[in-house]
Design goal:
By secondary structure, the chain is mostly helical. 60% of the residues lie in helices and 9% in strands. It is built from four helices and two strands; from the N terminus they run αααββα. The chain is globular.
């Protein structure tokens, strides 16, 4: 979401980019467990505003819905399937 080029993306393309960034961050920091607010700060690089936090929240919901992340309360972790895919692609 950072950068001028994001302003020219469609909303769906922006959401997809945020999902990818969230998943990359979850995989890179695993086994650290993060909250949505922490993920937003990691991705944006400064205290995240509502729009950034909301975008990350939507990304987490989508990743959890398709089995790539798990959420327990405020904590988000990559799923076993996401970890295995990351291992295979490394």
């Amino acid at each position: 979401m950072v950068g001028d080029r994001d302003e020219t993306r469609s909303p769906r393309a922006q959401d997809t980019a945020i999902e990818a960034a969230v998943l990359r961050q979850l995989l890179a920091l695993h086994p650290v467990q993060l909250t949505v607010e922490e993920l937003a700060r990691e991705i944006v690089g400064h205290p995240a505003d509502f729009a950034h936090t909301d975008a990350v929240e939507r990304a987490v919901r989508e990743l959890a819905a398709c089995g790539l992340a798990h959420r327990s309360g405020d904590v988000i972790v990559p799923s076993r399937a996401a970890l295995r895919l990351d291992e295979l692609l490394a």
